[in-house]
Amino acid sequence: MMKMITPLTGVKCLAAFSGMRLIAPLYHAVVDQSPKHIRFLYNIRSENTFKSDLEFFLRHYEAVDFDEFRKTELNRNKKRQFLITFDDGLREFHDIAAPILLQKGIPAICFLNNDFIGNGNMLFRFKASLIASRISEEKYSDCALQRVATLLETKCGDNQEIISALLSVKYKDSEILDQVAAVLEISFSDYLEKEKPYMDIDQIRSLADKGFRFGAHTLSHPMLKELDITEQKHQVVESMKGIMAQVPGAVPAFSFPFTDTGLDMAFFEGIMKEKGAPKMFFGASGIKKDRFPDNFHRLPVEDYNASVKEILKMEYLYYLARIPFRKHIFPR
Ligand SMILES: [Zn+2]
Q1: Of 160, 192, 224, which marks where a domain is finished?
Q2: Residue 158 structural domain
Q3: 319 and 240 in one domain?
Q4: Domain end: 165, 192, 219, which one?
Q5: How far is the CA of 305 from the centre of ligand 1 (A)?
């Protein structure tokens, strides 16, 4: 009985049946031990898990670069292909993921925040995770913790309350994180200089020479839906223009920071009217179509503590189950 069912729920069969043959897995970093600036935010694939992921993808899909992927998508070719994508331009992409990808002959695209290339600054959520790591590791005085709790408008009962308040700080309030860091004598610039969380332009250049491609991911990684339309356009279009002008191996592709939920058709149509706008967008809602045809949803592999085989099967079955209700298309 199982032998009869298995082929029908195999990934190749599900890809053909759903018509969703193109997939784009999304990663941030590949490393065995999560760095302090990520530890409190999301799971990371280890080197071995990443290798297993890639081997599975290679067995079921053809590895392609951005240009080939875009061509297949535009021409609606029935090819089963995958494009590896990385967001945020982290150092681990250069140090760990890229050598593995090169060894296996797999192309990839990495999306960059202009403000963070070369470690001039870092994502506000990374600051929150770094402070949370320090609070959980070091003994701060009650007085310092009380001042932090006041800044975060939370109680100073235990560290857990402070940590969850830190992780809830929004982009527009992110100056609070700088104030908290000052109280706890945490220097983000020292951390950036010492740990170098992001790639610099020379590392990007060397990867571009090896065939990797780069796209835009906004200037400073805001939650776009929290900004007004002028700021949204600025973050998307200026990021894309800057990447195209200054980054070797750049292609006119853009990936959304956090999520594209809350952005309507008027947002996409408005952006597309701007000179220098991206030609293709990447979301992160799993296997899903989008009412805006040039927004491609990727597979957020790190969201699941599972093998990519299990993730893909679940995503395909979820996609198929939503078709009768027209919920397989992001409505906008
Ligand atoms: Zn990001």
Answers
A1: 192
A2: 124-192
A3: yes
A4: 192
A5: 19
pLDDT attached to residue 2: 44
The pLDDT > 90 percentage for the chain reads 93
Residues 24, 138 within the same domain: no
CA–centroid distance, 258 to ligand 1, in Å, is 6
Q: So what's the pLDDT on residue 332?
A: 81
| 216 and 81 in a common domain | yes
Distance 31 CA to ligand 1 centre (A): 17
- Flag whether pLDDT at 43 surpasses 50: yes
Which pTM value belongs to this model? 0.95
Residues contacting 41, CB < 8 A, separation 6+ = 125, 126, 128, 129, 167
Q: Over 60: is that where the pLDDT of 5 sits?
A: no
| Same domain for 34 and 115 | yes
**For the chain, percent of residues with pLDDT exceeding 70:** 98
Q: Is the pLDDT at 322 greater than 60, yes or no?
A: yes
Whether residue 208 is found in the same domain as residue 296: yes
